[in-house]
Amino acid sequence: MKLIHLTDLHLVPPGAMLFGFDPAERLRKTIERINRDHADAELCVVTGDLTDEGDFASYELLRDVLRDLRVPTRLMLGNHDSRQNFLRAFPDEPRDENGFVQSVHESSAGRLILLDTLVEGFGHGSLSDDRLEWLLARLAEKPNVPAYLLAHHPLQPIGLPHFEPWNTENWRQIMPQIAKAGNVRHIFHGHVHVDVGGTWSGIPFSASRGVAHQIIPDFKRRDADFVEDAPAFDIALIDAEGVLVHRFEVNDRHVVEVSASGLVPEGVQ
Ligand SMILES: [Fe+2]
Question: What's the pLDDT band for 261 if we cut at 50, 70, 90?
Fold first, then answer.
């Protein structure tokens, strides 16, 4: 399965700017690149912060811009989003029985479980008891099917003091329960605006710096420098053997030489 992981679009209303740039333009360029190189992907998931302030006009703009994307797309919420305005613009996005925008997508590589970690009005995330219960039930109902979690907020630390207050609250209690289920193969998250990956509680995770602004990683400071680098997105290649995550920047690379064919000659193993 080829999965596209987009995150942190931070769209603002048409005509407005964010930190002096147009987030919608960055998304359009990202979509152009995906359509050119990765239109064969099975699915694209956007892990939240779809908008910067959760206003309805920004969700309408998102709906318009996404019309050009040639890959089926699922949307998730981040701390900058508004559940109500999102659902006004995207009424067909599935919800759980408690009204949270979380659902299961049955893919060719297993179950993608899309989580809703939004706590309206706050920067940190939550898998409150009802949301966590829903997740653990999904993991338990098909224990032998590989599951992949997608969340806006990390469920583990990323080693940057700036983000310590903005994680999913109670992640220390939540992660062992997720690990205990035994079928989660990878966690994709957003929120952090830096490129980071690793393992926590034995579960691999990855996040990219996303489509809008980025943050310069600093292992000492509690504040952060925001920068405007090229938009980035991840491609995950998932099959029964493993999960491979590649990061792509939306810029024009300077090719210095075309390498000889890497095909292995016949008869050579
Ligand atoms: Fe964000």
Answer: confident
pLDDT surpasses 60 at 269: no
> In angstroms, what is the span from residue 193 Cα to ligand 1's centroid?
6
Report the separation in Å between the CA atom of 26 and the middle of ligand 1, taken as the mean of its atom positions: 14
Residue 186 resides in a domain: yes
Q: What is the pLDDT of residue 140?
A: 98
- Structure tokens given for 120: 């309206």
Q: Residue 259 — very low, low, confident or very high, per pLDDT cuts 50/70/90?
A: confident
The Å distance, Cα 178 to ligand 1 centre, comes to 24
Does 266 fall in a domain? no
Confidence of residue 254 (pLDDT cuts 50, 70, 90): confident
How many angstroms does the Cα of residue 174 sit away from the middle of ligand 1?
22
**Mind listing the pLDDT tens digit for each residue in 120-139?**
999 999 999 999 999 999 99
| Tokens representing residue 128 in the block | 């409150």
Question: Does residue 148 surpass a pLDDT of 60?
Answer: yes
In a domain, 163, yes or no: yes
Domain that holds residue 115: 2-249
Distance between Cα 255 and ligand 1 center (Å): 32
Distance 8 CA to ligand 1 centre (A): 5
Q: Is residue 259 part of a domain?
A: no
**CA 192 to ligand 1 center in whole angstroms:** 7
Looking up residue 54, the CATH number of its domain turns out to be 3.60.21.10
* Structural domain count of the chain: 1
